[in-house]
Design brief:
Length: about 120
C-alpha cells in the first residue's frame, strides 16, 4: 500500500509537521487518494502577497495558494505522485480565524484542506 508523503518548507506554523502530515493523510484518505506527494510551504503576509500578485494578478495577501503540477501523459509513477505545492499564510489564517469565530488550528486545517482540494482538481466558484 502506498502512503502519502509531504515535503515541508516551513518558516512558522500553527500546527506541527506531524499534525499537518496527519491532516493531509486523513483528507487524502477521505478523497480516496493514496500515494500522493505534496509540498506544504508556510509563509508570511509579504511573501503570500507577492506570490498572489505574480501568479493570480491580485495585489493583496491571501490565506492559501495552490500550485498543481500537470500530469505527464504516458508517465507511470514508480513512487508517490507529486501533485503540487500549497502555500499557506499563518498571518492571514490567524486574522480569518478571529473573523470566522474559529480557533487558529481549526482555520488552518480548513484552509489546508481547501488547498489540497484545489490540487486534486476540486474547485469552487
Amino acid at each position: 500500500m502506498m502512503i502519502n508523503q509531504i515535503y515541508f518548507k516551513v518558516s512558522n506554523k500553527i500546527l506541527s509537521e506531524s499534525e499537518i502530515d496527519k491532516e493531509v493523510s486523513k483528507h487524502f484518505a477521505g478523497r480516496k487518494k493514496k500515494g500522493q506527494f505534496v509540498e506544504v510551504e508556510i509563509v508570511g503576509e509579504k511573501t503570500i502577497k507577492s506570490l498572489n500578485l505574480k501568479f493570480m494578478k491580485k495585489n493583496c495577501p491571501t490565506d492559501v495558494l495552490s500550485f498543481p503540477l500537470p500530469n505527464i501523459p504516458g508517465e507511470k509513477s514508480v513512487g508517490p505522485s507529486h501533485i503540487g505545492t500549497i502555500v499557506l499564510c499563518n498571518d492571514i489564517i490567524k486574522l480569518n480565524a478571529k473573523k470566522r469565530g474559529r480557533t487558529e488550528r481549526e482555520e488552518f486545517i480548513f484552509i489546508l484542506k481547501h488547498g489540497l482540494d484545489h490540487l486534486l482538481g476540486i474547485h469552487h466558484n
